[in-house]
Amino acid sequence: MLAAGASRRMGTPKQLLRLGDKSLLEQTLEHVRGSSVYETVLVLGAAADEIQGKLPAIVDGVRVVINDDFQAGMGTSLRRGLAAVSPSVEAALIVLADQPFVRSATLDQLIACHRKTRPQILIPIYRGFRGNPVLLDHSVFPEVMHITGDIGCRAIFGAHTESIHKVEVDDAGVLLDIDSEEDWSKLSSSGDPAARIKKMAEIEVRHEIVAGRPELVIVGRDAVARALAGLARILDFTITIVDPLLSLDEFSEADRVLHVLDFSRLGAAERYVVVASRGQFDEEGVEQALQGNSNYTALLANRQRADEILRALKLRGLPAEKLTAVRAPAGLEIGAKNPAEIALSIMAEMVAARRKPS
Q1: CA distance 57 to 155
Q2: CA 297 to CA 328: how far, in whole Å?
Q3: Is the preceding omega at residue 13 within 30 degrees of 0, hence cis?
Q4: Number of structural domains, the chain?
Q5: Highest mean pLDDT among 64-78, 90-104, 185-199
Q6: Any idea what DSSP says for residue 209?
Q7: Is the domain of 154 the same as that of 290?
Q8: Residue 276 in this model has a pLDDT that exceeds 90
Q9: Is residue 86 part of a domain?
Q10: Looking at the structure, do residues 159 and 254 belong to the same domain, yes or no?
């Protein structure tokens, strides 16, 4: 369990934030203890003394490791944690301390799947969206021990595209983490947020979709996504946002929000797709766009990440001619730096593709 972060965006150790009658860290540990894991290694770093002082019970049955190098990124915590596990373990669940809503039964489902199929990397999927925790087979531990920076387990995914297995889980908790005060305020005041998300309709529509208008589908909800939606509104596109957690009320530019990663729910249209999920749902978003024969597909990612995703999709059988049509990195080269400029470069490329003589 990785709990070494400095919580810079929170301004206080988020491990100690209260969720009901427990702290965030206690609730996450409770779910781990309720599963069939053999042992638990807890990696602390920033505020380690304060956390252990205020939560003395966390050490019961837990191997605590202190990562003094936590400021160098998540990779250092991964290395410290894996170095502390027993040599006989078959695999490790990389549990994030800021994901307190993942159920014990979900952890057991991942463990059972690993024992049955023995993939090197196992990723939980909810409604088509990938989540955490990731399960790593012991065979990839040596590679993880060389990870640097703050990218985490994903650093080795590109080298194991054929050995990654995704398992569908009925637990929205795998998508919920607390990175900011806004996250904490929203998730701590809504009872069981995973249950609330499960009740959300697969698609929310603001009003009747106007037939004949081109559609822009944006996978993601960051500043670039919002800037893109603003430009698309000016150009009279129907705007669909694809996100498992976002409500329609939270994205005023959107005509509808799709809460399941399945573009077949959108119907037929002249469709343009931009995947801007910042690594969360990149591969799945591009795959849906290509399977749905979108008129334009763009991926907001650096060249290395884009190549990894396209290679993975090729191994999954997507035709080469479709993969070569993906615009990655997305957008025309105009020296764009900020979200608005990046959105403009993508929209210009999209318009050029739309107006290109057939």
Answers
A1: 33
A2: 9
A3: no
A4: 2
A5: 90-104
A6: P
A7: no
A8: yes
A9: yes
A10: no
